[in-house]
Amino acid sequence: RYDAGKDGFIDLMELKLMMEKLGAPQTHLGLKNMIKEVDEDLDSKLSFREFLLIFRKAAAGELQEDSGLHALARLSEIDVSTEGVKGAKSFFEAKVQAIQDASRFEEEIKAEQEEKKKQAEELKQRKAAFKELQSTFKQ
């Protein structure tokens, strides 16, 4: 909804607009600190996974009470008395689906890293075998 650039990320200006629309405007420095707190890949913008991290940290009590991220998490909570049970159900189902998608993403990254590690080890073994073969010709 707030990804104006449609690039799959929330940048500083998009976060500024989002916080203003949610009724919790932040200073420029406050916005930078919000991104910095959950920016795992240090690209100065929020991916979907990093956005979900805000809510994980809020649920675990890891956000400071006066931080912009705490305000964002609090503003994004659902009030069953106004939304009703069906609204809460779809809200939580969407959150669960997003967490599952993030978990799948993490699994894909781990598999990719394992494949790279395996390829590096195979390359190392081939180089060692080549050096051994090369040394027999030098004698």
TrEMBL record:
Annotated keywords: Calcium, Coiled coil, Metal-binding, Repeat
Superkingdom of source: Eukaryota
PROSITE patterns: EF_HAND_2
Coiled-coil boundaries: 95-133
Record-level Gene Ontology MF annotations: calcium ion binding
Domain EF-hand: 1-25, 26-61
InterPro entries: EF-hand-dom_pair (IPR011992), EF_hand_dom (IPR002048), EFHD1/2 (IPR040365)
Protein name: EFHD2 protein
Species: Ibidorhyncha struthersii
